[in-house]
Amino acid sequence: MYLWFKWIHILAVISWMCGILYLYRLLINHRERGTSSPDNHELLKGMEYRLYRYITRPAMLVSIAAGSGMIWLNPEMLNTGWLQVKLLAVVLLIVSTLYASHLNQVAAVNPTDLPSSKNLRWANEGPTILMMIIVWMVVFKSF
Ligand code: HEM
Fold this sequence. Notes:
Helices cover 85% and strands 0% of the residues. It is mainly alpha-helical.
């Protein structure tokens, strides 16, 4: 059962990462090209909505559920430093995902109300760096 949870967990975190990294890219394009034509705006608005609603959010929820399932089966893991740091980084990743969802709503109304594309690029670095910390912690389990 533990390995079933881990299999589902790894599939879900891959989808979550794909969704959140692509979502910020779409938002950057929306900020830079969303005002140039109504077609661009409508196209990007639809893509952001579907990517978040049907991939990113469900994948995030399944990642959390399967990860929690493994902890439920092996609660001693909560006393380990690697999982504590991993979960802290995961909380920040959830915040970054909810922030992207908020930006989706802003972009849908008026893309010029989005942060500058430079700041959106910085925001896009967050999930990448957090992913590296999370996977490092769970693979090396160094403390
Ligand atoms: C609340 C969310 C999460 C929880 C509770 C959680 C918890 C866990 C637990 C308990 C394991 C099993 C460790 C083991 O048996 O060695 C695990 C494995 C793993 N987690 Fe997570 N995790 C979460 C989110 C994430 C995220 C966001 C990522 C990637 C960005 C991730 C990547 C992995 C990987 C790659 C493994 C497999 C490691 C291995 O097989 O050695 N997890 N996770």
